[in-house]
């Protein structure tokens, strides 16, 4: 999956519901970052401290900052840290799980259902590879999340200092890797959601129940980097000019109102064609950003994008004296 556009470059069994194991913690982490105060202190409950398997060895009554618990969940994959995060941010683990599922639906992850915040085996706890890609794509747009999941090693402090080493070995073995989360249980097998950026192109690879998750992820990422490229249209790029009647200035630029990116097979940029559809004239006053038309992007004969174009600058309405002076100048020119 290409991160900016969400375009899927290759998929096999992408919508099959599978146990996601600790890749679940991507949702836990992004919700905590968005909904919680990362500087708040969290008192660890007995329930959270008792959560087993992968752990950062929390003890009941211990206090850590929410930010450090999120790091413990995303970097070291601590199940106890994920449980503590859920209890603190949601007020209860049950309500936090409700928020997780609500967020999944909002992201379009229709083959995902969470029963806990850490990914330990539970009935009807599942996600698809495609859905995990959607969640990762969304989460990586948050710089705090992105910074955490690309961290190889760090130290957090509670009652004692804890050294965290990222469970994602791809961060060491693949030079362009920058995230995101591992997962392992008997039912799920070895799972990995991986991201990497090369020459401005960011890709997300998801492998579930893999015999060699790092090699498989590398293979997918290399397939994307070797076979695809992107064409970016930047917000503010100029695509024409429009006359403004009774305005100063009398012409304004028509600019793209948002960024967009189009993923293409290598060496196929020449197949792109652009059609500018803008008005020839508008009346003053004109606000900056006001709609002037749109840009259509075609790949061969297929339309693959439509971007609104707006005024690159404002144009105020001329006053009466200015209009009379302009009229006089026009008569003198005759």
Automatic annotation (TrEMBL):
The active site is at residues 22, 25, 77. Residues 228-317 form the Peptidase S11 D-Ala-D-Ala carboxypeptidase A C-terminal domain. GO terms for biological process: cell wall organization; peptidoglycan biosynthetic process; proteolysis; regulation of cell shape. Pfam families: PBP5_C (PF07943), Peptidase_S11 (PF00768). It comes from the Bacteria. GO terms for molecular function: serine-type D-Ala-D-Ala carboxypeptidase activity. Pathway: Cell wall biogenesis; peptidoglycan biosynthesis. Removes C-terminal D-alanyl residues from sugar-peptide cell wall precursors. PANTHER family: D-ALANYL-D-ALANINE CARBOXYPEPTIDASE, TRAFFICKING PROTEIN PARTICLE COMPLEX SUBUNIT 12. This is serine-type D-Ala-D-Ala carboxypeptidase. It comes from Calderihabitans maritimus.
């Amino acid at each position: 999956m290409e991160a900016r556009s969400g375009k899927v470059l290759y998929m096999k069994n992408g919508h099959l519901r599978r146990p996601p194991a600790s890749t679940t913690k991507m949702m836990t982490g992004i919700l905590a970052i968005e909904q919680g105060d990362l500087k708040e202190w969290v008192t660890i409950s007995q329930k959270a401290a008792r959560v087993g398997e992968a752990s950062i060895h929390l003890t009941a009554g211990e206090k850590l900052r929410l930010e450090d618990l999120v790091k413990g969940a995303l970097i070291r994959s601590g199940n106890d840290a994920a449980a503590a995060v859920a209890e603190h941010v949601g007020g209860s683990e049950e309500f936090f799980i409700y928020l997780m599922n609500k967020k999944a639906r909002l992201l379009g992850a229709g083959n995902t259902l969470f029963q806990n915040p850490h990914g330990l085996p539970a009935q009807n706890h599942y996600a698809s590879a495609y859905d995990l890609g959607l969640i990762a794509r969304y989460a990586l747009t948050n710089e705090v999340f992105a910074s955490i999941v690309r961290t190889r090693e760090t130290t957090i402090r509670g009652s004692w200092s804890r050294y965290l080493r990222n469970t994602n070995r791809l961060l060491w073995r693949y030079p362009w890797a920058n995230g995101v989360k591992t997962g392992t249980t008997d039912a799920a097998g070895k799972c990995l959601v991986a991201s990497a950026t090369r020459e401005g192109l960011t890709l997300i690879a998801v492998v579930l129940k893999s015999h060699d998750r790092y090699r498989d992820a590398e293979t997918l990422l290399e397939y994307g980097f070797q076979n695809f490229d992107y064409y970016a249209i930047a917000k503010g790029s100029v695509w024409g000019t429009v006359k403004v009647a009774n305005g100063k200035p009398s012409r304004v630029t028509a600019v793209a109102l948002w960024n967009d990116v189009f993923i293409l097979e290598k060496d196929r940029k020449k197949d792109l064609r652009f059609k500018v559809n803008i008005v020839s004239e508008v009346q003053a006053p004109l606000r900056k950003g006001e709609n002037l038309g749109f840009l259509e992007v075609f790949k061969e004969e297929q339309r693959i994008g439509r971007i609104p174009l707006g005024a690159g600058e404002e144009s105020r309405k001329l006053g009466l004296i200015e209009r009379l002076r302009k009229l006089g100048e026009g008569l003198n020119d005759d």
